[in-house]
Amino acid sequence: MKTYDVIIVGAGMAGMTLALALTSGGLEVALVEKQPFNDMLDVSFDGRASAIAYACFRQWKALGVGDVLEPLSCRMDEIFVTDGHLPGAAAPTPLPFFLHFAAGEISDRSDDEPLGYMVENRQMRKALYEAIQARGIRLITPVSLVDHREDGVFAEIDLSTGETLKASLIVSAEGRKSSLREKAGIKYINWDYEQSAVVCTVQMDRPHNHVAYEHFLPTGPFAILPLNDNRACIVWSETHAKAKALMQVDDALFFDHLLARFGEFLGDISLVGGKFIYPLGLGLAEEMHKGRLALLGDSAHGIHPIAGQGLNLGLKDVAALAEVLIEAARLGEDIGTDLVLERYAKWRRFDNVSTSVVMDGFVRLFSNGNPLLRAVRGVGIGLFNRVPALRKFVMEDAGAATGDLPKLLRGELV
């Protein structure tokens, strides 16, 4: 039976980042993943791209991954947000009812940081996987989790290969359907937004100039997110039925519907690659740890992609948990005890809950066509856009750069 300091179940972006962070602090780590990793690196596995907050990208730079990912990433220097059918930034003469965020308005940045970076998920997985391999971190895949138990001093997991692993702490980075969370009896609040996101990539005729656009339509947000090589990731939210229909129509008809929402302000566009669909909902665990189990990322919280904060919440979890565990280990503490894990939960609980509540409010406020609400939203957006201090705070908060920052989010190793 092999003993580790920490076993991470789930080798997604958050799980692999935690493995790199803990290893950099001297802890011995094993990663367990049920999916064959070659499948996870294939272009057909995940068509999404993620907006990475600038402080979260600092974490990757500190861990030696940022320099690999930066050439594969696209800066987001500006973001325009419009309500409903208001043309906002896409109009020849923009109406007053839109939000504009610009990186130049944030003063507390280093090295000309953007608001964030758009990175394709497959590129992130590949870079993190190569870093895991280079550092000699054990990755066991594909393998299923058969059993999990604790004896008060250690936690053990039995794998479908017949191997048993032991550690002071098990971390669930399995995603929203965490088997370890369910087995531990941690309650999980969740609901469906009755929306699905259709995701695709387009090539554009005119340069996007590193600007992201988000249009709040009655059926859900429609986002145009810049990628390198003058491409854009489209995140198109519709009701489940309409999203499923969009996936089933031929490419020509899909393109006609897409063009009607995209507009012509970036010139001719063409589809690149396949279409993908993802159901949207909210999930929130009532506890972030129990016994010798800690929850990380989507195992602890899953939110609507309306503001691109889902993966960033997980990466902020990583920075806090890594710092708590590394410092506890250096002090000779048992890293799997409630005393240690509650520090992590206390550090992350408020941000995770408040962000989930705010994102849920945005979905409910903007994903409807109520005329009265539309009028109120328009006035509110116009007023918000005229308060620089408030706009700056929102940009810094979305950039993961507010509050008590862990060292990794400041670009420093623990």
UniProtKB/TrEMBL annotation:
Protein's pathway: Cofactor biosynthesis; ubiquinone biosynthesis
Sorted UniProt keywords: FAD, Flavoprotein, Membrane, Monooxygenase, Oxidoreductase, Transmembrane, Transmembrane helix
Ranges annotated as spanning the membrane: 6-31
UniProt keyword annotation of Repeat present: no
Domain (FAD-binding): residue spans on this chain: 4-330
Gene Ontology CC terms, in alphabetical order: ubiquinone biosynthesis complex
PROSITE patterns registered for this protein in UniProt: UBIH (PS01304)
Cofactor(s) named in the record: FAD
GO MF annotation list: FAD binding; monooxygenase activity; oxidoreductase activity, acting on paired donors, with incorporation or reduction of molecular oxygen
BP GO annotations: ubiquinone biosynthetic process
InterPro entries: FAD-bd (IPR002938), FAD/NAD-bd_sf (IPR036188), Ubi_Hdrlase_CS (IPR018168), UbiH/COQ6 (IPR010971), UbiH/COQ6_monooxygenase (IPR051205)
Membership in a protein family: Belongs to the UbiH/COQ6 family.
Protein name as catalogued: 2-octaprenyl-6-methoxyphenyl hydroxylase
